[in-house]
Each structure stands twice: as C-alpha cells, then as structure tokens.
Input
Amino acid sequence: MRASAGLQDLLKRSGVVIGALLLAACSAPRQEPPDAAAGKAFKVVTTFLPITLFTRAVAGDCATVIPLIPANTGPHDFQARPGDLTALRQARVLVKNGLEMEGFLDKLVASAGNPQLKVIDSSRGVVTLDTEHHDDGHGEEQSHGHGHEHGAVNPHIWLDPLRAMQQVETIRDGLIKADPSCAEGYRRNAAAFTAQLKQLNSEIAGQLKPYRGKTFVAFHDFAPYFAQRYGLKAEYLVDVPEINPSPADLQRVATAVKSSQLKALLSEPQEGNRSFNALAKDLGVKVVVFDPMETATEEASRDPSTYLKLMRRNAADLRQAFGQ
Output
C-alpha cells in the first residue's frame, strides 16, 4: 500500500527534523550528573570519621571531601586499596588527626607521589595528654605485642568539644591557605560549627557537673580528654580495642568499679568483647554505650551534626553509668 503524496511529504520533513535534532544532541555539551560535577571541585581527602565530619563542616560547598577510610572501618583496622593512592594523587589537601592515630599514613602518602598535596595536621597546637600504660601484673606495661598501641601521646583529642574546636579552626586555616578563592566560605562555615561546639560543651558541662571527681570505666583508652574537660577520671580495660585483656587488667578494673560505685561499664557500639561483658555480669553492673566515633554508618559520616548528636548521647549514657 503506497502512502499518499501528502503523507510522503510529511515523512520526508519529519526525517529532516529528527536528523537535525540528533545532530544538535551530538554537538551539544554533555550534561554531567551532579556527582561528576562535584568531582571537579577542590578535592580534600580525610582520614577517619571525626576528621571527615569536621572537614565537611568547614568545606561546605567549597570542596569535595573524600574519606580515605570507609565510615564503618576504624583507623586501627584500615587496609589500603589501590583506589586510595588514586584519591591521594588527585587531591589538593589531606586532613588527618595526627598524634600517630593514622600510623599507616606516611607510607601511603609517599607511595602516592603527589608533591602538590598539602597535609593539614588538625592536632597542631592542641594541648595533649600522655598515654597511660598499666602494668600487666608481671612488671611490664600493657602492650601484648599487637603493634596497635597508642604512642606516647593519647590521640583521642576530638572527644573534647573544645579541643575539637581547635581542630576545626586548624582545618579552616589550612583550607584557606590551600584554596584562598573560597576563604570567606571556609570562615563562615567554621564559625557556624564552632559556635555549635561551644554550645555542646556548655550543655555537657552542666549535665555532668554533679559527678565531678567520679571515675568511669571504658573498654579501651579513648576517654581521658573527655574526662579531663568535665572533671572526671577515666579508667580503661585495654589500650586499643584489638588487645585482649589480661587477668591483671580485669582485676584492676574490678577494683576501680567497686571503689567508684559505678552502675555500668562503657563499651563502644561495635565492641562485643566477651571478657568485658562477663566482667560487668560478675560485678553486677550494666554495659552502656559510649561512642568514641571511630566508625559510623555511611549516611552518618556525611552529616557534620553526627558529631553533636553522638556527643550528646554519650553524655546521657555516662549519666546512666553513674546511676542517674
């Protein structure tokens, strides 16, 4: 069946229109997805959760923040992947906690071979506390040969909101120096977040004031800065989470719990150490959570307010440990 002359003319003209549209589509700039466009921004690599949260708070829309360590992995458990070298080669800035918390980092940065990479050590200028090592009952300090022990200085400075404020300000200054084109944005973002940190500190100080001088017990040695800030004393079972406690460790903590009349021991969210749970049962106390923020969900790691939420929850759980 032949098409009428009018229909043939319409088809011919339609072909011309379609061809023109295809030609225009091929020559027009390709619209990139939001993630690809964001990837062209000033790139900043961070190490683990609190540093990622602080850097995201300061960076805002000025930079793309790329965590080196997955949100659900702590710095002690990190295993480098080939993609990490690529991230470091493409980044302009690397932000770290420092104080030997990221013991793997120096070799990784050297392997990346990026001479343009600026490293921001967020611990710079922060007053630190020495790591307290306990005798294991045989005249030796607690080390257990795991190779994961903290160095001479305790690195958990981010658990003190005012020290965290110093970290945020150091990150701000480093980003301004590396990317002066967005200096005003970095200043504005940092000011907003440090104001929230000041408010957080005031809240927690008021809540914990009735317990000044009391001792609490955590599974690993993450709490001395928090304890110092709020006039408390922190005891711990092991230096870092990977270590198994010795009988001397268990006896030392049992003595501390009995003398301080604690109602609960503090365990990390991801910690399921049987000896710690068994100790709590033997002492007739509960186990409540205190989150040192070394890991989180991927979603939580994208939101700087995660730090504020978890610190408020930690203060509430600590009051529970004191028997409120």
